[in-house]
Specification:
Elements (H helix, E strand, L loop, with lengths): L1 E4 L2 E4 L8 H7 L4 H14 L3 H4 L1 H14 L5 E5 L11 E5 L3 H12 L5 H9 L5
Parallel strand pairs: 1-3
Antiparallel strand pairs: 1-2, 3-4
Helix pairs in contact: 2-4
Length: 126
């Protein structure tokens, strides 16, 4: 399963990003807690999905595990080390064809925040 996190596409079908032991620990966490965790992570580093892809992929996996219909998430932080309450999370379910297209662009290094916004989030639209 492909998952778009901000402007990075992760293949969650590749080896599980968490150990079986961690998966058991994480199963007790609800979606609300995972979203809070995502806001905290992105408040510390708004480019988490690029700077720490292992951690970002784990977050994507936890979101998808708790909400299987969701395959795209964006955590928009206004600045590094901002308050987690200022991070704006968004979620959606994208068609597989769109995710494949975004994944191909990402693999070629052609997917950035502006391109992802135009296709998915429309935050920058005037």
């Amino acid at each position: 399963m492909l998952f778009l996190l901000n402007d990075a596409v992760f293949d969650l079908d590749d080896t599980c990003p968490v150990t079986a032991r961690d998966a058991r620990r994480f199963e007790k966490l609800g979606l609300d807690y995972v979203l809070e965790l995502g806001c905290e992570l992105f408040s510390e580093d708004p480019l988490l999905h690029r700077n720490d892809p292992v951690r970002a992929r784990r977050l994507a996996w936890m979101i998808a595990d708790r909400s299987p219909e969701v395959n795209a998430a964006m955590f928009a932080a206004p600045a590094q080390n901002c308050a987690p309450e200022l991070v704006e999370p968004r979620f959606c379910a994208l068609p597989r064809a769109i995710l494949r297209q975004l994944s191909q662009r990402d693999a070629r290094g052609k997917l950035d925040a502006v391109a992802a916004d135009r296709v998915v989030w429309n935050r920058m639209a005037a």
